[in-house]
């Protein structure tokens, strides 16, 4: 889209706060988000998957809005990995075709990484993407993600995936067997 002013794009967490929004408006926003993802990612995710991410890590579910329309989103989570390190996971990312090439995905990833590193103190961040998705690979590799594994027929469409990792500190490079177990207070688990 040529006449779009990128300064008018608003990046915000998807709020589930029923004191600020009606349940109907929250439900319709989640459905809008789901339809954006369904359209652009090969895996189908049920509404419960979205609720799981949104309820547990609301600040890691960011949307990009242009006017009233959701034009992009990123959905992530943070959990303890093998009780020795904190691992962020980028689950879904999509930008509406009309708005691609404007840096929206870069901005969403940047905001997400900032929260994962500074708020959640992640030691590493991982994700998977299709081996054929050159755009996504370039995008993530420019952030410093590196390929660590090829997962055979990982997706329902039978495409292989690459698992990518962004090591944040040295904890990420030490085998779990040789790592120090985290304190109870440091553990991050999903609640819902
Ligand atoms: C991948 C996707 C999210 C990128 O969104 P976007 O907002 O257009 O991306 P940006 O404008 O922020 O571009 C960021 C980088 O992506 C890469 N990129 C973007 N478009 C590209 C293209 N057509 N070919 C190759 N690389 C491309 C570039 O590295 C670009 O950085 P640069 O402009 O500095 O070179 C979008 O294409 C999309 O929704 N695709 C379908 C869903 C998907 O593949 N999701 C990711 C898998 S988990």
From TrEMBL:
Which keywords does this Swiss-Prot/TrEMBL entry list? Acyltransferase, Transferase
Which residues belong to any copy of the N-acetyltransferase domain? Answer: 9-169
Has UniProt tagged this entry with the keyword Transferase? yes
For whether the record's keyword set contains Transferase, the answer is yes
Q: Which GO CC terms are listed, alphabetically?
A: NatC complex
An MF annotation (GO) of this entry: protein-N-terminal amino-acid acetyltransferase activity
- Family membership: Belongs to the acetyltransferase family. MAK3 subfamily.
**PANTHER family, per the entry:** N-ALPHA-ACETYLTRANSFERASE 30
Instruction: Return the protein name.
Output: N-alpha-acetyltransferase 30
């Amino acid at each position: 889209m040529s006449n779009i002013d990128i300064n008018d794009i608003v990046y915000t967490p998807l709020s589930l706060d029923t004191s600020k929004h009606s349940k109907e408006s929250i439900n319709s926003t989640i459905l809008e988000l789901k339809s954006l993802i369904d359209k652009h990612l090969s895996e189908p995710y049920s509404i419960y998957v979205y609720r799981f991410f949104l309820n547990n890590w609301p600040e890691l579910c960011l949307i990009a809005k242009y006017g009233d329309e959701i034009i992009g989103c990123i959905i992530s989570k943070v959990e303890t990995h093998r009780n020795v390190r904190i691992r962020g996971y980028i689950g879904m990312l999509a930008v509406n075709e009309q708005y691609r090439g404007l840096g929206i995905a870069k901005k969403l990833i940047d905001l997400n990484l900032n929260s994962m590193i500074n708020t959640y103190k992640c030691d590493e961040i991982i994700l998977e993407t299709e081996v054929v998705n050159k755009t996504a690979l370039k995008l993530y590799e420019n952030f410093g993600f590196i390929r660590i594994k090829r997962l055979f027929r990982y997706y329902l469409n039978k495409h292989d995936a690459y698992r990518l990792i962004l090591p944040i500190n040295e904890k990420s490079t030490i085998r779990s067997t040789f790592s120090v177990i985290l304190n109870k207070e440091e553990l991050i688990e999903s609640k819902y």
